[in-house]
Design goal:
Elements (H helix, E strand, L loop, with lengths): L1 H29 L2 E6 L5 H12 L4 E7 L4 E6 L6 H11 L10 H6 L12
Antiparallel strand pairs: 1-3, 2-3
Helix pairs in contact: 2-3
Length: 121
């Protein structure tokens, strides 16, 4: 009888822990959103610069720039940042972000190959 009781207790703990993990996973998903932003990135250096610099912004969870489409996908915590702040951060790196123009001072500091007038390479 003791073996059945112990087995039942172990099964119940496993079920409860599994449910708890599932609830925690759902909460994490709610705290994480993604936004896609069109940039003026031109080359691999642009990709490296945007991904590196955005990674240090408050609330940013992930950054991935597709060089072909020039779209950066940013995972972020909506409690700490929002798409407008992310666009502004991209602008301060020196790139256009959707309708937000690149900060002129940051743009001038970009290497020649990263200027908007250059073709993708």
């Amino acid at each position: 009888m003791k073996k059945i009781t112990v087995l039942f207790a172990v099964m119940m703990m496993t079920i409860l822990l599994g449910a708890g993990n599932q609830i925690m996973a759902q909460k994490k998903k709610k705290n994480y959103e993604e936004v896609q932003i069109q940039t003026s990135a031109v080359c691999g250096m642009c990709k490296d610069r945007i991904e590196h610099d955005l990674a240090f912004e408050k609330g940013i969870k992930s950054v991935s720039l597709d060089n072909e489409t020039k779209i950066v996908t940013v995972g972020y915590s909506p409690k700490k940042t929002n798409p407008d702040k992310i666009r502004l951060a991209i602008s301060k790196i020196g790139y256009d972000a959707d309708g937000v123009e690149a900060d002129p001072i940051a743009y001038e500091k970009l290497p020649g190959c990263c200027k908007k007038s250059n073709k993708a390479h």
